[in-house]
Amino acid sequence: MHAFRPQALLYFLCLLIVSCQNPWAPRNVDHPSDDPAMRDQRVIRLEDQTTFLEVTIPVYSGLNPALVPPITTIRWQTIHGAQHPDSVQWMMISTKPFDDSWNETLEYIRTNPDAPEWSPWHPYDPANDIGTSWTTPPQDFGAYVFAVHGKKGDIVGQEFDWVRNVRRIIVSRRTTGPLLTVTSVFFDPIQMVIEDTAPTIIDIPGGIDIQFCWTADASMYGGVVEGYRYGWDILDPDDDSQWAIPFTPFAQPEECSPVRTFLFGTHTFHVEVIDNNDFKSRVPIHMNIELPAKGLFDIQPGSCQNPFNPKSRRMMATAIVGTNGLDVHNIDISSVLLEGVSPIRSKFKDILTPTAISDGCNCTIHEPDGYDDLILCFRTEDIVEALGWEDYRNPKAKKDGKYADRVPRILHPGDEILLTITASLLNGIPFEASDCIVIVGHQDDGVCREALWLFDGTGVDDTGKHSATLQGGATFVATPEGQGLFTEGASDLAEYDPPISQMDAGQIVFRFKLDEDFPPLFGFYDPIVIITSDRSGIFESDFSIQLTAIDGRLWFSQERATPIWLLRTEKNAWGAGIWYEVIADWGPSGRQLKITWDGGAEVVSDEAAAPCFSADAAVRAIGARGSDSPPTGLTIERIEVRCEGKNPEIPIAHQ
Questions:
Q1: DSSP secondary-structure letter at 405?
Q2: Does the N terminus or the C terminus of the chain have fewer Cβ atoms within 10 A?
Q3: pTM summary value
Q4: What is the spatial distance between Cα 384 and Cα 369, in angstroms, rounded to a whole number?
């Protein structure tokens, strides 16, 4: 038999009392009021959440008081899921009369609903930001307790809680001001909360439009941003006369300076913000304006890659970009030289908008911006000759001895080269600017080619025999050797017309890379077709090079209902990110498939005499896929279709 325990009975009675507690108990159940006025008011328990507020600024920091300036703005809101009160009332009282005790000060707030420190009841309408904040009058330095509660009808809630609607506050002198954020196209955002700081130093080309924008926020410490001012080349920030404008209220969340343009020299921009306690933050930006101007010249306007094929006989379009600081009509066109070459054609037209500038390699947006641009066209062969590129020089130029003092240079696909244009303004001021090109194309190695696709921003065959149309999501991407064709969908491909057909002998040379290992460990996928004679693969004859998911091997084949012939590698696993070189030969003496990669090689031969292409077969599509989405993206770089087969000794042009 168990012994009787008085403690257990006492615990049970306590639970019974709590469970029967009147929900309309007085405002403070621990300290009931004898004031008759209080008996008519009702208090809502926290768990009922009929009206329940929480202070959002300053945020709750546990036992740590919030540090605020003498004038601060305190904000609150209805807790999520609770009803909005009709009105609110708040109090902020010093802890000095209560022996600097936080708890005793809070006890005074709890037990004195009619204390003179309480504000009047204010309407509460959060939708219109009414009754949701209070900006204090100037307060003496010291410790304070702030409390806020609401009333709905004649019901007053809620209990005062440090976490929710009560805050410990210390009013003190701050060492920082509002968070000032300055933005521009010339740098990443700059943020500052103090007045005295070293300037940010940037280099800006002459003639470029310069504008800075900024925002400011003091809410994190209960402050209010009252205004901003800015100026140029200020020597003494304390001298109000040196600023362009006096402190001005923000008319919108972000303000911006007027656009300025400088052709040369050094200049400093200053912006400063101030809060309602006269705390300031300032950002100075020191600009080195470079002369001659950079960043105003764009090769192949509207393109950022600027692929340049030295074998091309096309005109090369360029532009000197006009801005409000550079009127291109003031350029002496007769003085314009690009690497010593004069333009063959020029005109003024507003077609470009400058964007961010990198080290010599510039981009523009192909749309007008209100300022005329100077469009200049050059012969590609003239630029090639002027630079003395040995492999591409005009034989006539060699014969005449032109450019004999130049040092020959060998070009490789993917080389990035900076070209400089010079000129004089009509007033005699020199002008200089640069932009870069990326070499694409091939050297004249005597190889007969039926087709050469460089994917240098277009799908045009470099031999001029075939045109291309991108299908699905096929795109051009940068590669180590220049550019390539990227496909990742079931129908991504480049389809050529007219196709390459009826070749009794030939050779296909290309490189490819996968984004993920192949074949995948799980799932079934259609083959990854790298090049095929027919997009659908269901016509009478189909010639293809493909990676198969059946055995993971690279297949080189001609097919009808069944393969007429098929070569396939022993290699059956292909790593992600690895470039594989492929040479596929066919001809009267047979076929050969050669694969090389970093650290490995494989050659597969079949000497059985059988033609690759029938009269109906044709190389027609690159990057074709099966019906299902492939397990990996595919990048194909530089595809050559050579006129002669069984020539493994001919090197891949970019090796």
A1: T
A2: N
A3: 0.38
A4: 33
Which tens digits make up the pLDDT trace of 586-608? Answer: 777 778 889 998 888 999 887 54
The encoded tokens of residue 172 equal 């003190």
Partners of residue 593 on adjacent β-strands: 584, 604
345 Rama sector, left if φ>0, alpha if ψ -120 to 50, beta otherwise? beta
- Peptide bond before residue 354 is cis, with ω within 30 degrees of 0: no
In which band, very low, low, confident or very high, does the pLDDT at 335 lie, cut at 50, 70 and 90? very high
Nearest of 440, 455, 341, 318 to residue 388 by alpha carbon:
341
Question: Side chain identity at 476, as an amino acid letter?
Answer: F
Q: How many CA atoms lie within 13 A of 568 on its CB side?
A: 16
114-132 pLDDT, tens digit per residue, is: 999 999 999 999 999 899 9
Q: In the prediction, which pLDDT does 209 show? A: 80
β-pairing, 307-308 vs 430-439, is: parallel
Which residue matches tokens 């030969």? 585
> Tokens 């090369």 map to which residue?
316
Question: If we measure between CA atoms, which residue out of 424, 428, 434, 261 comes closest to residue 331?
Answer: 424
Question: 3-state SS of 169-200?
Answer: EEECCCCCCCEEEEEECCEEEEEECCCCCCCE
The domains of the chain, with CATH numbers, are 36-171 (2.60.40.10), 179-290 (2.60.40.10), 305-439 (no CATH), 449-642 (2.60.120.200)
Whether the CB-CB separation of 468 and 605 falls below 8 Å is answered with no
